[in-house]
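To the wet lab folks,

You asked to see what we're planning to order before we commit. Fair enough. Below is the target structure as tokens, and below that is the sequence we designed to fit it. If anything looks off to you, flag it before the synthesis order goes out.
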């Protein structure tokens, strides 16, 4: 993009948790690096000149009466090789699902041609659903992981890609594990260097991330070494943390402390790092995360199938932990962060009000657990950006322009029956609750068009 680009119309974002800001008749100026340099309302003295210049240059994109710009969705937890089994075997417990379906599938990515077949479809589908930033688990295979990084670069998606480490022979199947701890560490370092030297990745749109699958799959030595690599190479970390009863109890039996505390002692809690799920973390664990500037990937749909509990999202936010949203493909059978945001609202209501009708209403749930659509939008956009410590998720000067244009006819057409308008909080709320892939017209990452319906 050689020249500045301008976007005009209605914008909606969450400048802070729980606060929805709607910017009507607003002009955003984007520079050649994809950064927002000006946010002008139609009452600003510089507005008309900037608007006329953008329109005359042909660099102006406008929203319509029934559409709006939203920040791009941030998906903090995607298992890329699991894309072919989306929606499969979700009736099984997690350990059976992993061993009977998931590990055999992931093992097939030793053939990098499978990666070249699967990953472009995954990345393009996520972009079409409005996901401008994705955090990926790949597999233990170096070449397939490199393919994923290249696919994200070619598609123009902001991505954090991790080559998975699974080296414990007592916990990992013979057909799918690192051949040695040394190999796992060396290849992790090699992959970090590969991504950082990736041709055409000069803006660091694609970044590496250290990826122990979870404590149960890794030897103690590997976990310590990965913490050292993350520190010395200044690299984020992603892993699973207290996802379900089994993992939570396994770590207690191995280390005599919580998953979070163990990860902290192992040096795996880094600024901008991501802990997936965290359904069984205590307030003390949350304080550890907050102090380490490590955040949580909340995966509400996946949690309903495999986590055995509801994550206390409101509690984590109140404590001050950074929380973003994750699809957890394929444990979560949807590529849409919007769908996960809606489910997060519903799950928080069920946690607050309880689900067992045989228990008296006064003691059935956990008070003050619910979130609303504003907080859900925050978690899906600015919250995820906060977890990763990257300047996206809001329409503010100095942030990258990662955005989607949503034109939701179904939601706005219903407004005519209720004497409401196609503006204001009701319009945004209806959009959040109703939007699907077909309503997402265009997607920009770093100011560049990445997807156009």
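Sequence we intend to order:
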């Amino acid at each position: 993009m050689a020249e500045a680009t301008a976007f005009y119309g209605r914008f909606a974002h969450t400048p802070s948790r729980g606060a929805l800001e709607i910017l009507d008749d607003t002009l955003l100026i984007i520079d050649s690096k994809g950064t927002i340099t000006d946010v002008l309302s139609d009452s600003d003295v510089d507005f008309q000149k900037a608007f006329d210049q953008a329109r005359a240059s042909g660099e102006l994109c406008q929203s319509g009466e029934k559409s709006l710009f939203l920040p791009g969705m941030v998906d903090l937890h995607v298992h890329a090789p699991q894309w072919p089994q989306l929606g499969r075997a979700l009736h099984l417990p997690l350990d059976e699902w992993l061993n009977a379906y998931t590990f055999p599938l992931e093992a097939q990515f030793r053939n990098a041609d499978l990666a070249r077949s699967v990953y472009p479809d995954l990345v393009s589908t996520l972009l079409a659903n409005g996901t401008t930033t994705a955090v990926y688990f790949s597999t233990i295979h170096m070449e397939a992981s490199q393919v994923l990084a290249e696919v994200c670069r070619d598609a123009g998606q902001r991505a954090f890609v991790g080559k998975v480490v699974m080296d414990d022979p007592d916990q990992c199947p013979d057909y799918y594990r690192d051949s040695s701890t040394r190999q796992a560490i060396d290849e992790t370092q090699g992959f970090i260097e590969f991504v950082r030297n990736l041709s055409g990745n000069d803006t660091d749109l694609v970044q590496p991330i250290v990826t122990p699958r979870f404590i149960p799959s890794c030897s103690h030595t590997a976990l310590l070494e990965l913490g050292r690599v993350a520190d010395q190479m200044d690299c984020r970390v992603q892993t699973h943390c207290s996802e379900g009863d089994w993992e939570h109890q396994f770590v207690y039996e191995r280390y005599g402390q919580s998953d979070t505390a163990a990860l902290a002692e192992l040096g795996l809690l880094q600024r901008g790092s991501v802990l997936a799920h965290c359904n069984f973390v205590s307030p003390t664990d949350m304080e550890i995360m907050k102090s380490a500037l490590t955040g949580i990937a909340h995966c509400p749909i996946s949690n309903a199938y495999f986590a055995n509990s509801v994550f206390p999202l409101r509690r984590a936010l109140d404590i001050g932990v950074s929380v973003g949203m994750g699809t957890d493909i394929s444990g979560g059978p949807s590529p849409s962060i919007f769908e996960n945001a809606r489910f997060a609202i519903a799950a928080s209501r069920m946690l607050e009000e309880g689900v067992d009708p045989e228990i008296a209403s006064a003691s059935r749930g956990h008070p003050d657990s619910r979130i609303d659509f504003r907080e859900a939008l925050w978690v899906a956009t600015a919250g995820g950006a906060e977890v990763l410590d990257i300047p996206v998720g809001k329409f503010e000067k100095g942030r990258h322009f990662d955005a989607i244009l949503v034109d939701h006819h179904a939601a706005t057409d219903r407004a005519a029956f209720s004497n409401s308008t196609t503006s204001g909080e009701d319009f945004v709320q209806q959009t959040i609750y109703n939007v699907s892939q077909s309503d997402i017209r265009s997607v920009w990452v770093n100011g560049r068009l990445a997807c156009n319906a």
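Structural context that might help your review: Residues 135 and 160 are 5 Å apart (CA to CA). The two ends are 20 Å apart (CA to CA).

Thanks,
Computational group
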